């Protein structure tokens, strides 16, 4: 196995490194603020606060607990993938990397989540092209699991989600394609031939694609799918409970299917946090099930607060710790 040269051998002065860190963190902060402004404008702080206030503290705690279960299960999946890739990280490192990355989940196109690759590079010495497959397979695993949940929901529920199977099939197809080393490498090569530019970037992308075969181990894949399924189902179940508390119980699998469908729809828009697309899809599907607007609108707002906004809050809390620990990790590597 080839290894990267020790960071101590890279001729980067402390002043230059500090300037580079400042530029990167500033850029991430600007992306975060841009996404946050869009998110706040789309949801409306006052209306959302009023809707959340209708629930009891116990009910809010249950919703947040189910969301937390999702994040912890997906963190464990991230750690399984990281170890499968060969990254020398501990569960504590994976926890702060994954949760800290949520702070950037509202950046346009979610590009800010690549900060996890930066933390890994600083703590392990692995280059971005070696860790990039981790981010790709994590996103592909989410697509695959959500497609499976949606397909199951459509098969067990009736009405309201006629396009669910098509969306599920598309998500599964994308997830499958994203984890095929030869296919991804061929797409990268085709992209370079089409543009004829950025040869170094495309070369790094091809290097990253070759590492995807490490995730084809059946036991690891089965564990990853099980963890992801349980995590996303937990949030769908939270939506089911919420609708019941608001007097519009449409059934478990319909609620789960609507939540997952809306989440996928929001992700396809590329907007920060899927804002706009997710809410529109959720309200429209609830309307098809006969849920009145006075319930569907607040239910949508509340579930987004206890999922998206809660993840954002966790990310903001974990981000400074992850950044500080990654700096210490880089310094430790340089001292070796």
From TrEMBL:
Location of the protein in the cell: Cell membrane
Q: Name one Pfam family in it.
A: LPG_synthase_TM
In this chain the Rhodanese domain maps to 204-241
**Which PROSITE patterns does the annotation name?**
RHODANESE_3 (PS50206)
InterPro entries to which the protein is assigned, alphabetical? L-PG_synthase/AglD, Rhodanese-like_dom
Q: Membrane-crossing residues?
A: 52-73, 145-178, 220-243, 255-275, 295-321
Name the source's superkingdom: Bacteria
NCBIfam families the UniProt entry points to: flippase-like domain
The principal location of this protein is: membrane
**What topology in the membrane does the UniProt record assign?**
Multi-pass membrane protein
Protein known as:
Flippase-like domain-containing protein
What keywords tag this UniProt record? Cell membrane, Membrane, Transmembrane, Transmembrane helix
Q: Coiled-coil region(s) at which residues?
A: none
């Amino acid at each position: 196995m080839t290894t990267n040269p020790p960071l101590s051998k890279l001729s980067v002065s402390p002043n230059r490194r500090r300037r580079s860190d400042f530029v990167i963190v500033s850029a991430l902060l600007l992306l975060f603020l841009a996404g946050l402004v869009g998110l706040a404008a789309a949801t409306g702080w006052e209306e959302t606060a009023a809707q959340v206030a209708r629930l009891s503290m116990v009910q809010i705690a249950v919703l947040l607990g189910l969301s937390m279960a999702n994040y912890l299960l997906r963190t464990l999946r991230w750690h399984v993938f990281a170890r499968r890739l060969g990254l020398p990280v501990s569960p504590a490192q994976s926890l702060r990397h994954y949760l800290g990355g949520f702070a950037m989940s509202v950046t346009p196109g979610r590009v800010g989540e690549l900060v996890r690759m930066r933390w890994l590079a600083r703590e392990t010495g692995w280059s971005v092209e070696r860790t990039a497959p981790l981010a790709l397979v994590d996103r592909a695993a989410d697509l695959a699991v959500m497609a499976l949940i949606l397909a199951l929901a459509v098969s067990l529920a009736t009405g309201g989600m006629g396009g669910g199977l098509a969306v599920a099939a598309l998500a599964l197809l994308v997830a499958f394609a994203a984890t095929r080393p030869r296919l991804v490498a061929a797409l990268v090569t085709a992209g370079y031939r089409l543009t004829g530019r950025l040869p170094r970037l495309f070369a790094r992308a091809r290097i990253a694609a070759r590492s995807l075969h490490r995730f084809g181990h059946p036991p690891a894949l089965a564990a990853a799918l099980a963890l992801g399924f349980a995590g996303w189902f937990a949030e769908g179940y939270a939506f089911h409970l919420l609708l019941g508390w608001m007097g519009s119980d449409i059934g478990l699998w319909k609620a789960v299917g609507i939540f997952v469908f809306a989440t996928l729809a929001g992700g396809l828009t590329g907007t920060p946090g899927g804002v706009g697309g997710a809410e529109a899809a959720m309200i429209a599907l609830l309307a098809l099930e006969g849920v009145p607007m006075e319930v569907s609108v607040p239910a949508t707002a509340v579930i987004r607060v206890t999922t998206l906004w809660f993840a954002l809050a966790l990310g903001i809390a974990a981000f400074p710790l992850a950044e500080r620990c990654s700096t210490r990790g880089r310094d430790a590597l340089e001292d070796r």
